[in-house]
Amino acid sequence: LGFGIAMGIPPLVSHNHSRGANDQNGWVLRPCLKAMAGAFGLSTIAATSSGFVLVALGQPAGVVAPCQLFITMSLVSLPPAWLSNALGNMLVSQGIVQPCLLIHGFASML
Q1: CA 64, CA 61: separation in Å to the nearest integer?
Q2: How far is the C-alpha of 64 from the C-alpha of 102, rounded, in Å?
Q3: Over the stretch 65-82, which tens digit does the pLDDT of each residue have?
C-alpha cells in the first residue's frame, strides 16, 4: 500500500520542479505521509488478523504461528521502507539522483 502511495509523488513533484516551485514539495509529502499512516493502520490490522485468516484457509497449526510471527515482525520495516521510497521518488523527480544511486549501489553490494 505504501509503495503505491509513494508512486503518486513523482508527477506532482516534477510538476513543481519544472515550474521552479521546489519549496512547495512539502505540500506533496505531507498528504502522502498521512495516507501512509492510514495504510500502516490497515497493514497492522491485516497482520494481527493473519492468524485467523490462515486457520480459516485450513493451514496447519504448525504453519500459522511462524507465519503470523513473520508477518508481525515484518510490519516494523514498512514505515521506513515506504518513507525511503517516497523521499527517493521526490529527489529523483527533482533531478537529484546521486543519493539514490549511492544508496542503491551500496545496498546491492550487501
Answers
A1: 5
A2: 39
A3: 899 889 988 898 888 888
